[in-house]
Amino acid sequence: MPMSVETTPLLLKANLRQLKLPTMLGEWEKLAREAATQNESYEGYLLRLTEAEVTTRSANALASRIRAAGFPVVKDLDTFDFTAVPSLSKHKVLELARGAWVEEHANCCLIGNAGTGKTHLATALGLAMCRLGRRVKFVTAAGLVTQLEAAQQQHRLDRVLGHLDRVDLLIIDELGYLSFSRGGAELLFQVFADRYERRSVLVTSNLAFSEWGTVFQGDRMTAALLDRLTHRCDIFEMNGESYRFRESMTAKKPNDPKKGK
């Protein structure tokens, strides 16, 4: 028995709700009117309707990945001042943004003075990976060690390590700004060791590799960690004048150079 004109929209709406297709539910009537006006084919109408659902789901999934990453501030590559760090290869950074290194489980290290844009660049690369569908987690080194120590005390360390293991790219920011206990250093080493050739790590640090022994409580652990981290790793030295210092000095300059003379 054919359905009536009155019941068809109601049944369609019910089906779309049951199938959990909210964008199609919200757009089908408008697109149906447009299709009728333009004498569009059934296939063309269905294609546009499903494209709307796919686009919305993709946008929602990206927003979810960005929230889960925990970036302190969302910053992109188009706002990074490459001219302020002449030693940094823009071409190489843009190549990293295409994501092959994460697919290959390689690593990246950004080493240099405070204020030279390491966190900005790390965030931008992490954001690029989110756009490629990768799972990203951003943490400070101190914050990660604190989390691991608390998990160990609460007998849930395996759960936390398991969660980190599911992340495609782990960004560890500010390694070297604070020292750790021997136990904390060993837990951080375990994270690096677990990810070796299985997942990617991006590290920012104000310390040269030769100084990492102060963080990891001795030469033996430091050597073992660097052997794993740098085996397949892009290393960028980012030394130069601090962004924040330069902006502060610029802000203090008078607009008119003749003033104050």
Please explain how this structure is put together.
The chain is α/β, with parallel strands linked by helices and 261 residues long. The protein is 53% helix and 11% strand. It contains eleven helices and five strands. The protein has helices at 7-18, 22-37, 42-69, 90-96, 100-103, 118-131, 141-153, 157-165, 182-195, 219-229, 243-252; strands at 107-111, 136-140, 169-175, 200-205, 233-237. It has a five-stranded parallel β-sheet with strand order 2-3-4-1-5. It starts with 6 loop residues before the first helix and ends in a 9-residue tail after the last helix. The mean pLDDT is 90.
Count of helical stretches: 11
Shape: elongated
Distance between the termini: 94 Å
Q: Helix share of residues?
A: 40-55%
The largest β sheet comes out as: 5 strands, parallel
Q: Could you report the average pLDDT, rounded to the nearest whole number?
A: 90
- State Rg: 25 Å
The beta-strand count equals: 5
Main β-sheet, spatial strand arrangement: 2-3-4-1-5
Helix and strand content put the structural class at alpha/beta
Oligomer type: single chain
Element-level helix/strand string: HHHHHEHEHHEHEHEH
List segments where confidence is low: pLDDT < 50 over at least 5 consecutive residues.
Answer: none
Strand content: 5-15%
